[in-house]
Amino acid sequence: MTRIWAPKGTRPRKVKQKQFISTYIYGVACATTGDSFGLILPNVNTQSMQLFLDSFSKHIKQSRHAAIIVDNAAWHTAKDLNIPHNITLIPLPPYAPELNSMEQVWQWMKDNYLSNTAFNNYNDIVDQLQDAWNSFSNNVELVKSICFREWVKHHEM
Q1: Predicted TM-score (pTM) of this structure
Q2: Which of the residues 45, 102, 103, 147 has an alpha carbon 20 to 30 A from that of 23?
Q3: Rounded to an integer, what distance in angstroms lies between the CA atom of residue 78 and that of residue 73?
Q4: Cβ 88 vs Cβ 68: under 8 Å
Q5: Domain CATH for 72
Q6: Residue 4 domain flag
Q7: Range of the domain at 38
């Protein structure tokens, strides 16, 4: 039971939902081309990061190389990650989330699709997260505008 907002002088109680179900999206996006790639996974850990890297590596066009900006989350920097030959991870300095454009992507998804939403179950979360990601990734101009950083020098490979 929990307290709720109510008229002054009353103290009503209500059943409090205690369940917590979540899932996670691993994603990358290119500000130059507007290309993006994402995987929805049930955990944030080294094994999930490895699955993401291996899957993304297969998505990269032959003779191309991808640089992924990552924060210092443990699963981004784990020593037992096997980084594919066509990917380089570029770690950000600590406390610099504004340098990682994907943080703005996650905020856009929350603002436009996920905030103040009640989910029925895990599959509903995955479905709505997939809709949010697809809406973002299918809009090339949106990808470019959110991910572009003036200080990044883009080179077509």
Answers
A1: 0.80
A2: 147
A3: 9
A4: yes
A5: 3.30.420
A6: no
A7: 23-147
